[in-house]
Amino acid sequence: MKLRSKVAAGARFATLGLATLxxxxxxxxxxxxxxxxxxxxxxxxAPASGVPAGMxxxxxxxxxxxGATYVIGPDDSLHIAVWREPDLTATLxxxxxxxxxxxxxxxVQAAGLTPQQLADSITEKLRKYIADPRVTIxxxxxxxxxxxxxxxxxxxxxxxxxxxxxxxxxxxxxxxNQFAKTKGxxxxxxxxxxxxxxxxxxxxxxxxxxxxxxxxxxxxxxIVVP
Length: 226
Hints:
Blueprint: H1 2-45, E1 77-82, E2 90-93, E3 99-102, E4 106-109, H2 115-126, E5 135-141, E6 146-151, E7 157-160, H3 167-174, E8 185-191, E9 194-200, H4 202-206, E10 222-225
Parallel strand pairs: 6-10
Antiparallel strand pairs: 1-2, 1-5, 3-4, 6-7, 8-9, 8-10
């Protein structure tokens, strides 16, 4: 009888021990799943800034308003980013004399150069102070090349001229109001000191007709919407 009791007690202890092990295994698995879930949540919540490791978030390069062949002019706004040098990374205006002011380098000629040419120029100058400088130049805002829109539009006045901007694109940006005479629109352009009047039939352009009137705009052009 005592032997049976001891056997039964041993079985109960074995069963209890097995249950404890199963519970511990289940608890461990649960914590593992929770940990993985938190990790994924943190990854998902992290902003996709695209900033490489080691580069401060303040040096994120904005979208360029000018293409690779764009020639920088006075009043343009430039974003200059120097890798791992936050004190040299800034957004600066091009002065009327065509230069920008940078720490260490003082005045640097910018007007008349493409973004890559300016980056190469600054890189070469920085070699005196920094080992292996890496410079990126982005045209943050185009102010040196403007056109003008007058008349029956929603947004009259000067407008930054984007690369390869056409009459139709400019009119779409300005917006025509309900009083606009779409058959009487024209572009005023100064050629060799003389002003030329270039007709634009807006409705035909929308239909894909008279495409030659969708002029490629030049700095200083004025679009008149009667």
